[in-house]
């Protein structure tokens, strides 16, 4: 199977690339990204003989079409995105529409005009739920979307564009919403500037320094999942032989309190009023909720591993790649 992944040199998509190759699900990959692969990605994916890296901006419709048409993939995973950064949203809100909505339309249009493509996975986000209704318990995959930032707005719009392409051209386009992802290969990219709390905890372990967080962060919690578990579910969605249409959550499905997360990482943490590592404990709904994973579990038979196992794997990757954290910290 040949899989073309947009945003393929970024964090989660590079973990998917490795999963597809190491599992044997794909024998060929095209990684399309506006950023050329850095040594970290090349080292992580390892079997780069099977990979074609393609520097393409998804805003360039003609270039996207030519590359997808020439590559003739079986499956396309569309993960290229610009994520929520308040300064980016304020200074250039149109970029979210250009990259996340128009870029999605370009990728889908190229896919439907290329007769080799049997499925497109659209990678979305829990940001579609915005601040949300005060619904207790895990949020269902069919909960109403109420985005409250340009990133979430653009993800909802792109999901609707994807649904329309599916209806118009009979394409199989599962929509996959991730919660807060952590794990190997998380680093700043042209699409993302804010690192997760687990990234900071891993950096503190590897660099042997204490992490400063705001005091209220210690009263917060959330639904974290490793990119490795996410990639396993995405691989299942790539290889499934039946239609996979529908919306999936890839999440743990459970709340983890920040003190428990800190313990799992074995990190040393202090509090500081000026710390930029800050979570608001009152934000518990919508994009800050816990998510039902019933559809991924029922339809794919997917189940995330226990958090302790996910964290241990990440820490062992972090220890083996400590230079990476020293350079980024
Ligand atoms: N990391 C998370 O916690 C999380 C949570 C929810 C959803 N997601 C989704 O997962 C996907 C991957 O996100 P990530 O966290 O790995 O982010 P990332 O920034 O590491 O990856 C995004 C990639 O898109 C590329 N990109 C940005 N603009 C582009 C453009 N114009 N043309 C081509 N490529 C472009 C970037 O260079 C980057 O490599 C995204 O669709 C994101 O919305 C991630």
What does this structure look like?
The chain has 329 residues and is an alpha/beta fold. The chain is 41% helix and 16% strand. The strands form 4 sheets. It has a 7-stranded parallel β-sheet, sandwiched between helices. The N and C termini lie far apart (38 Å).
Give the helices and strands, then pairings:
Layout: E1 2-6, H1 11-22, E2 28-33, H2 39-45, E3 51-55, H3 61-71, E4 75-78, H4 86-91, H5 93-112, E5 119-125, H6 150-169, E6 175-178, E7 180-182, H7 197-207, E8 211-213, E9 221-222, E10 224-226, H8 227-239, E11 247-250, E12 256-257, H9 258-265, E13 269-271, H10 294-300, H11 307-320, H12 322-328
Parallel strand pairs: 1-2, 1-4, 2-3, 4-5, 5-6, 6-11, 7-10, 8-13
Antiparallel strand pairs: 9-12
The protein binds nicotinamide-adenine-dinucleotide.
Nicotinamide-adenine-dinucleotide is lined by residues 7, 9-13, 33-35, 57-59, 79-83, 99, 103, 123, 125, 178, 180-181, 189-192.
Short description:
With 329 residues, the chain is α/β, with parallel strands linked by helices. Helix content is 41%, strand content 16%.
Task: Evaluate the radius of gyration.
Answer: 19 Å
Number of strands: 13
Helix count, per DSSP? Answer: 12
| Structure classification | alpha/beta
CATH architecture designation of the largest domain: 3-Layer(aba) Sandwich
Tags for this entry?
two-stranded parallel ribbon; 12 helices; Rossmann fold; single chain; 16% strand; binds nicotinamide-adenine-dinucleotide; 7-stranded parallel beta sheet; 329 residues; alpha/beta; UDP-galactose 4-epimerase, domain 1
């Amino acid at each position: 199977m040949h899989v073309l992944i947009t945003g393929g040199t970024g964090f989660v998509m590079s973990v998917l690339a490795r999963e597809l190759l190491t599992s044997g699900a794909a024998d060929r990959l095209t990684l399309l990204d506006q950023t050329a692969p850095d040594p970290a990605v090349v080292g992580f994916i390892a079997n780069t003989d099977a990979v074609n890296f393609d520097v393409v901006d998804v805003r360039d419709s003609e270039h996207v079409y030519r590359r997808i048409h020439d590559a003739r993939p079986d499956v396309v995973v569309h993960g290229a995105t610009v994520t929520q950064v308040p300064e980016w949203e304020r200074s250039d809100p149109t970029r979210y529409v250009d990259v996340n909505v128009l870029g999605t339309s370009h990728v889908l249009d190229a896919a439907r005009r290329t007769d080799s493509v049997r499925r497109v996975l659209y990678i979305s986000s829990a940001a579609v739920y915005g601040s949300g209704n005060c619904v207790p318990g895990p949020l269902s995959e069919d909960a109403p979307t109420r985005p409250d930032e340009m990133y979430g707005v653009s993800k909802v719009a792109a999901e609707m564009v994807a649904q329309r392409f599916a209806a118009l051209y009979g394409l199989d386009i599962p929509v996959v919403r991730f919660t807060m992802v952590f794990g190997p290969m998380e680093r700043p990219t042209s699409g993302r500037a804010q690192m997760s709390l687990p990234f900071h905890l891993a950096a503190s372990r590897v660099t042997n320094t204490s992490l400063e967080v705001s005091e209220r962060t210690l009263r917060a919690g959330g639904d974290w999942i490793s990119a490795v578990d996410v990639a396993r579910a995405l691989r299942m969605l790539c290889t499934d032989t039946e239609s996979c249409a529908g919306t999936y959550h890839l999440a743990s499905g459970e709340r983890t309190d920040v003190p428990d997360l800190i313990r799992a990482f074995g990190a040393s943490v202090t509090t500081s009023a000026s710390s930029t590592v800050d979570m608001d404990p009152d934000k518990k709904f919508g994009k800050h909720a816990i998510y039902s994973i019933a559809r991924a579990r029922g339809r794919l038979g997917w189940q995330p591993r226990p958090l302790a196992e996910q964290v241990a794997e990440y820490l062992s990757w972090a220890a083996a790649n400590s230079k990476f954290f020293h350079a980024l910290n």
